[in-house]
Amino acid sequence: MVATLTAAGLCGLIFMWLSIRVVAVRRSAKVSLGDGGDLLLLGRIRAHANFAEYVPIILLLMLAIELSLKATPPKLMVLALALPVVRIAHAFGLAKDGANPLRVVGALGTWILLAGLSVWALIVAAGY
């Protein structure tokens, strides 16, 4: 479970960082609930929420694969390290207006990880 633990540990730290970023803007903008029309706060809220929407299922897929194989394949470790990288890229990408390379890398990277791990999990489940 080394890959899943590594990814989960790094993602936990990133989630905490994203939380602190939301709170910092909430305090400076004096907004306790919602975004108060503050675009910076909205971006930080969405980065935090998007992380919470995608990362748990990706970690669950990693864990299921790792437990089913009873070992940590090197390619799973690569994916485990890629997850925090693409999520950080996404968070910084959402801090900029409109589409930008960081946001594209973050979103596309997340989708590729989700799709790839989903297919891999199905293959493992089928016994191949």
Automatic annotation (TrEMBL):
- In terms of domain of life, where is this protein from? Bacteria
Q: Does the keyword Cell membrane apply?
A: no
**Membrane spanning residue stretches:** 51-69, 76-95, 107-127
Principal localization? Answer: membrane
Q: Which Pfam families match?
A: MAPEG
Q: Which keywords does the record carry?
A: Membrane, Transmembrane, Transmembrane helix
Entry GO CC: membrane
Asked if the Swiss-Prot or TrEMBL record annotates the protein with the keyword Transmembrane helix, the reply is yes
InterPro entries per UniProt: MAPEG-like_dom_sf (IPR023352), Membr-assoc_MAPEG (IPR001129)
What's the name of the protein? MAPEG family protein
